[in-house]
């Protein structure tokens, strides 16, 4: 179920999200078991996202799943939501390591380094807004529909991507961190100074999308170079999270990184924005007996552990 209720607010309202989870989850699970002809007593292992995220929604999902695991006397494994995204490309690709993983969602913009399948190391992240948030806020300022990413991509097709020169904060820093809040402020000023007609909207969307794409590509290239200096040769890049769906960004990534040296992976479309399948997959991939923990408390600010 998507929660349409948030669209009129231009973003997710935590309390409404939790209530909607509570309303839908039980019936949805029963009907899914029926539809897929799964007898829940045949399930060996239960898992749920336990962080990071909105505590209300985390509590609903994890408590519901813990109850199933107690009822069916099977283990419960708490999962990190970000690990679900990070490992999502390994479902449909044979990953070659070392790998950089670029996580682009409404809540996070992060770069991870994976020397091998079992190790995830955070090497850069946004110091303020997430990239998906920048897309949504820009769309909201332009009066476009939520979620904003799809709308911006649509309007960009009719715009001039070189029309506006938007700032690219932190682009010249030698670290791998991002900053997006300055772009939002700049766009806000542009909107106040201009007439919000179609050509303005199209040009702004196209320029915004181009700027985002350039920031991402520069930071990935910097990451690859930083490792090269240490004699580590990055062999692949995974682009995960909802923003990975942006075809313009994909096209530019493919143009900028040589396919012969660097493989670029994307998750299946179904595993791109938030979904339960990627959490189940990440759990199966890294399942170890010691990870069972029915008493695990959901953590709104849960970190990805270096060693899985
Ligand atoms: Zn997510």
Question: Can you give a write-up of this model?
Answer:
The chain is an alpha/beta fold. It has helices spanning 14-35, 55-71, 81-86, 131-141, 148-156, 181-193, 198-229, 247-256, 276-285, and strands spanning 46-51, 76-80, 99-104, 109-114, 121-125, 236-240, 263-265. The protein has a five-stranded mixed β-sheet. Strands 1-2 form a two-stranded parallel sheet. Helix 1 runs parallel beside helix 2, helix 4 runs parallel beside helix 6 and helix 5 (148-156) packs across helix 7. The radius of gyration is 20 Å and the shape is globular. The two termini are 30 Å apart. Zinc ion binds at residues 81, 85, 105, 274.
End-to-end Cα distance:
30 Å
Described by the principal axes of the CA atoms, the overall outline is globular
Find the count of extended strands (DSSP E, 2+ residues): 7
Order of helices and strands: HEHEHEEEHHHHEHEH
Provide the low-confidence segments as ranges: none
Widest beta sheet: strand line-up: 5-4-3-6-7
- Percent of residues in beta strands? 5-15%
* Count, helices: 9
Q: What is the helical fraction, as a range of percent? A: 40-55%
The overall pLDDT, averaged over residues, is: 93
Radius of gyration: 20 Å
Hetero ligands: zinc ion
| Coarse structural class | alpha/beta
Biggest sheet, in brief? Answer: 5 strands, mixed
């Amino acid at each position: 179920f998507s929660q349409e209720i948030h669209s009129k607010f231009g973003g997710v309202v935590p309390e409404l999200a939790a209530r909607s989870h509570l309303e839908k989850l039980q019936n949805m699970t029963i009907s899914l078991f029926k539809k897929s002809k799964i007898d829940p007593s045949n399930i060996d292992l239960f898992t749920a996202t336990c962080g990071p995220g909105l505590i209300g929604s985390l509590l609903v999902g994890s408590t519901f799943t813990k109850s199933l695991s107690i009822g069916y006397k099977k283990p419960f494994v708490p999962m990190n939501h970000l690990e679900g995204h990070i490992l999502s490309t390994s479902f449909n690709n044979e990953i070659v390591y070392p790998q950089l993983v670029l996580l682009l969602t409404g809540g996070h913009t992060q770069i991870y380094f994976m020397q091998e399948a079992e190790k995830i190391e955070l090497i850069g992240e946004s110091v303020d807004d997430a990239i998906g948030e920048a897309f949504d806020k820009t769309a909201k300022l332009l009066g476009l529909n939520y979620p904003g990413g799809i709308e911006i991509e649509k309007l960009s097709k009719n715009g001039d991507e070189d029309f506006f020169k938007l700032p690219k904060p932190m682009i010249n820093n030698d670290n791998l961190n991002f900053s997006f809040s300055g772009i939002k402020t700049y766009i806000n000023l542009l909107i106040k100074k201009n007439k919000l007609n179609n050509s303005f909207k199209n040009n702004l969307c196209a320029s915004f999308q181009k700027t985002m794409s350039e920031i991402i590509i520069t930071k990935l290239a910097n990451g690859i170079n930083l490792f090269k200096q240490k004699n580590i040769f990055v062999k692949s890049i995974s682009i995960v999270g909802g923003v990975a769906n942006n075809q313009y960004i994909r096209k530019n990534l493919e143009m900028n990184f040589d396919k012969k040296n660097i493989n670029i992976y994307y998750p299946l479309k179904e595993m791109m924005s938030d979904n339960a399948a990627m959490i189940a997959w990440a759990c199966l991939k890294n399942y170890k007996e010691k990870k069972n923990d029915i008493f695990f408390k959901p953590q709104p600010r849960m970190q990805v552990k270096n060693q899985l």
